[in-house]
Amino acid sequence: MNHKAVMIAMGSRNETLAGELTKDYEARGYQVIRSEERTQEGVKNAYEKVEKDGIAVETCILFPEPVYQVSLFDDDFIERMEASIDEGLIVGAWWLQQTANYLNRNGIKGQMIVMNHVSNIVPTQRYSYCSIPEAALANLVRVGVMDTHGNTDININLLTLGWLESTPMEKKWEEEMVRLYGGAKAPVLKCVADQEVIDACRAFDLLGGMNGGNIVLDNGFAISRTIRQLENA
């Protein structure tokens, strides 16, 4: 295998960020492969194809399911949660499993970066329901670190994102929260720029000893929200 490559999985979930990430990796000499496979067989086939083509995928970046609002009182609550479990947990599990198996089969030292949303760390109004599958996937990542240790040379890390500036719905949420809490010191309300996410992916490339870790890019939202809740208790 001669060509080093990056696999961007489910990039259509945020096409703007995926496009910028693609440009950055290509500028650094990587071949970027995009895949939207959502089944175990589909993900397996995607990796078998790059093996056949003699391409060495060193990094797999899994994009998170887009955030949405839902309530227990919504008629379609269960339907939306079931779909979210499929997209947020099951699809992620297939990518985690097949990435580890691919790297193991080919003796490649590599990594998987699993993106998720800050609402799975701190409750965030009605957004937190959509983060339940992501929280489960985060636990799967931690277990996966132990499971793969000694079997394959893979690092599996989390990249937890705050509210992204490039996502219209999340930018609108920031503007609404600033109107409500703009005069308060907490929570910190500031969207994250796409370039910061790209820089974090570069950091993972450099931090070979980081395994099972989590970089949180939220401009302090989660910790300031937690502190505010404790002060108001």
Features:
single chain, 233 residues, alpha/beta, Rossmann fold, six-stranded parallel sheet, 7 helices, globular
- What fraction of the residues are assigned to beta strands by DSSP? 15-25%
Task: Tell me the number of helical segments per DSSP (H or I, 4 or more residues long).
Answer: 7
* CATH topology grouping: Rossmann fold
Helix-residue proportion: 40-55%
What's a quick, concise take on this entry?
By secondary structure, the chain is of the alpha/beta class.
Explain this structure:
- The structure is a single chain.
- The protein is of the alpha/beta class.
- The chain has a single domain (3-166, 192-218), classed as Rossmann fold, CATH 3.40.50.
- It has seven helices and six strands.
- The chain has helices spanning 15-27, 40-52, 77-106, 132-148, 168-181, 194-206, 221-231, and strands at 3-9, 31-35, 55-62, 110-117, 154-161, 214-217.
- It has a six-stranded parallel sheet with strand order 2-1-3-4-5-6, with helices on both faces.
- Strand 4, helix 4 and strand 5 form a beta-alpha-beta unit.
- The radius of gyration is 18 Å and the shape is globular.
- The relative contact order is 0.14.
- The model has no long low-confidence stretch (mean pLDDT 87).
